[in-house]
Amino acid sequence: MIARDGIPIIIGTGVVLAVFLVLSLLFRHWALWTLTVLVAIFFFFNFFFFRDPERSYEGPETAIVSPADGTVIEITEEDEPYFIKGKARKISIFMSVFNCHVNRIPASGQVDFLQYKKGEFLAAFDKRAGELNEQEIIGLTTPYGKILFKQIAGIIARRVVCKLQLGQKVQRSQRFGMIKYGSRLDVFLPLNVEIKVKLKQKTTAGETVIGEFKND
Predict the structure, then answer these.
(1) Catalytic residues
(2) Is the Cα dihedral 53, 58, 61, 66 positive or negative?
(3) Counting Cβ atoms within 10 Å, is residue 83 exposed (0-12), middle (13-18) or buried (19+)?
(4) Sheet with 202-203, side-by-side order of all strands
(5) How far apart are CA 185 and CA 188, in angstroms?
(6) Fewer beta carbons within 10 Å, N or C terminal of the chain?
(7) Interatomic CA distance for residues 45 and 165, integer angstroms
(8) Domain limits, the chain
(9) Residue 32: Cβ within 10 Å count
(10) DSSP state string for 25-47
């Protein structure tokens, strides 16, 4: 499957490719052929980048899955002032341009906080990016506790797509948006969550368990 948000880009680059191909055949200049090849590479890369495979997780309801494909680059404990409003465990997941970029809901519940925040476009692996970069902040109330996660823009990724609405009921592993061309997601979990991932571990959105509520 191809993510719907990628279809306009694929169509647009396809049109540009067709134009350059016609011009190259008409004028047969090396510069036009070079540009045609570059556009063709970008055109076919978009099919890979905007792939959207089916994902699900059938484990216990207390399990929290990764919202993104990528690599865990940070696990810390810090204050979360927006929704959890207290100490929380943060997991940062970096997405390269080679990862699938469709984002998924980490746990079933209700969307009770949404805030778009303008900002800078620092490199996604910069520790300051989670606070300073442009981002969409999402607060989720589950039967076991609150979760907050952020879609964070980066140097290349300057387009955050979030299709959630306040009050919306969501299911674990459900698609909710994407970040185009690489960036990162930060997930804030309450202290009654046991972390299930390690630094540098690869994650798969909607399937890799990153934490589990331990109410006892």
Answers:
(1) 183
(2) negative
(3) buried
(4) 169-170, 109-117, 135-142, 145-152, 183-189, 86-95, 70-80, 202-203
(5) 10
(6) C
(7) 31
(8) 4-49, 63-213
(9) 17
(10) HHH--HHHHHHHHHHHHHHHHHH
Over residues 20-79, the pLDDT tens digits come to 999 999 988 999 999 999 999 988 887 877 788 889 999 999 999 999 999 999 999 999
Residue type, 214: K
Tell whether the torsion through CA atoms of 206, 159, 44 and 94 is positive or negative.
Answer: negative
Q: Looking only at Cα atoms, what is the longest distance across the chain? A: 73
Six token digits for residue 102 = 């469709």
Q: Residue with structure tokens 């934490």?
A: 211
Rounded-to-integer distance, Cα 94 and Cα 72, Å: 6
- Give the pLDDT confidence score for residue 124 in this predicted structure: 67
Q: Is 53 exposed, middle or buried (0-12, 13-18, 19+ CB in 10 A)?
A: exposed
Tell how many helices (H) and how many strands (E) occur in the chain: 3, 14
* CA 7 and chain centroid, separation: 17
Residues 6 or more apart whose CB falls under 8 angstroms from that of 48 comprise none
Q: Which residues pair with 145 in a beta bridge?
A: 142
Cα 6 to its chain centre, rounded Å, is: 14
Fold of 63-213: Glucose Permease (Domain IIA) (2.70.70)
Partnered with residue 193 across adjacent β-strands are 213
